[in-house]
């Protein structure tokens, strides 16, 4: 019996030593989901969509897009239909969504027509910034970028045209499209300013050039037949003043009709020299292409965009942010330009 007890005690001692020498097993600690820090060298892909790649205006805008890509190290490119067409723009946006780009800068031909595609891009996690779309719905974009306050710009065009008309007489307005938000804001504000300040001027009507110089040219020729006393013309699309200027020059009316509107030297230069077009206004499209992509990059990096911020692009050193009429957050710069025959070589594009 004594021997059996000694044996049991020995077995217990051996078991205790085995447990003491075994490695301990700790319960895993739940540290929560891993947080992935953004890589410092992370790059992005941004696609810019324009009304049409057939226009010098947007070829100039592409220069800014490509310069941004080169300076930033991000992939930045521009696409657009061969003719200004909202349905074609929507198809391009759909393609960019399928490609999985990080951001889209869209310059819509028709703002409402482009909004569903922009919303689809946002739902897919793509940042959406627009240009020339300050009247867009707030849920169809993250920011709209404008070179200046559009109403102030329209009023400035009216002041320039009215002074050349002697503040009296009939005038007409042209827009690229009746659904183009920016063009209609310019013309509506110009007309309101005229009614308030120049009672002796008479508004004839607003006409749609469809962003086509031949369409605008034929419309203006008909207007000269119907309203032979026209003294002023406001253009919105870059080719509108050119279309009117051609008709005016053919009719020998260079000194009788004031033509003022948005354009660039490569379109309006020759007619500025002859006086068929009096003054061109606008902004450098290259700056718009560049700054639109800067905004996309800031959004993609999760950085806050605030009033007074310097976006590092001329004319956008002290931005203003306001809510548009339909809820869009609009970034305004201070980047407008004016040129006639005396200084157009300063804006050689």
Work out the helicity level.
Answer: 40-55%
List low-pLDDT spans: 1-38
Largest sheet: 7 strands, mixed
As a whole number of angstroms, the C-alpha radius of gyration is 31 Å
What is the number of helices?
Answer: 10
In spatial order, strands of the major sheet run 2-1-3-4-5-12-11
Mean pLDDT level: 90
Task: Spell out the helices and strands N to C.
Answer: HEHEHEHEEHEHEHEHEHEHEEE
Shape: elongated
| Strand percentage | 15-25%
Report what the structure shows:
The chain has ten helices and 13 strands. The chain has helices at 2-21, 56-72, 86-99, 111-123, 150-165, 181-197, 213-226, 240-250, 265-274, 285-300, and strands at residues 45-49, 75-79, 103-106, 127-131, 143-146, 169-175, 201-208, 230-235, 258-262, 279-282, 320-323, 329-332, 337-339. It is of the alpha/beta class and 349 residues long. The model is unreliable at 1-38 (pLDDT under 50). Strand 6 (169-175), helix 6 and strand 7 (201-208) form a beta-alpha-beta unit. A seven-stranded mixed beta sheet has the order 2-1-3-4-5-12-11, sandwiched between helices. Strands 7-6-8-9-10-13 form a six-stranded mixed beta sheet, with helices on both faces.
């Amino acid at each position: 019996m004594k021997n059996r007890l000694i044996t049991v005690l020995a077995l217990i001692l051996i078991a205790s030593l085995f447990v003491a020498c075994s490695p301990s097993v700790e319960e895993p600690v739940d540290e929560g989901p891993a947080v992935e820090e953004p890589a410092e060298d992370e790059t992005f892909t941004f696609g810019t969509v324009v009304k049409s790649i057939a226009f010098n205006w947007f070829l100039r805008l592409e220069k800014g897009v490509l310069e941004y890509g080169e300076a930033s190290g991000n992939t930045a490119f521009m696409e657009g239909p061969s003719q200004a067409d909202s349905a074609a723009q929507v198809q391009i946006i759909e393609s960019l969504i399928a490609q999985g780009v990080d951001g889209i800068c869209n310059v819509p031909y028709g703002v409402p027509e482009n909004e569903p595609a922009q919303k689809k891009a946002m739902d897919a996690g793509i940042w959406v910034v627009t240009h020339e779309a300050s009247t867009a719905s707030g849920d169809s974009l993250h920011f709209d970028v404008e070179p200046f306050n559009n109403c102030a710009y329209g009023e400035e065009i009216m002041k320039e045209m009215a002074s050349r008309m002697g503040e009296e007489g009939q005038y007409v307005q042209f827009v690229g499209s009746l659904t183009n938000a920016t063009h209609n804001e310019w013309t509506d504000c110009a007309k309101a300013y005229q009614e308030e300040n120049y009672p002796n001027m008479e508004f004839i009507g607003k006409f749609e050039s469809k962003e086509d110089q031949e369409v605008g040219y034929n419309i203006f020729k008909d207007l000269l037949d119907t309203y032979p006393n026209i003294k002023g013309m406001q253009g919105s699309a870059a080719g509108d003043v050119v279309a009117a200027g051609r008709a005016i020059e053919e009719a020998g009316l260079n000194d009788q009709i004031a033509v003022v509107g948005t354009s660039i030297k490569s379109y309006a230069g020759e007619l500025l020299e002859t006086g068929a077009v009096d003054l061109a206004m606008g902004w450098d499209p290259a700056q718009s292409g560049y700054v639109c992509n800067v905004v996309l990059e800031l959004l993609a990096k999760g950085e806050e965009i605030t009033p007074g911020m310097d976006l590092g692009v001329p004319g956008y050193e002290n931005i203003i942010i306001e809510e548009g009429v339909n809820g869009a957050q609009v970034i305004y710069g201070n980047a407008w330009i004016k040129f006639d025959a005396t200084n157009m070589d300063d804006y050689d594009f």
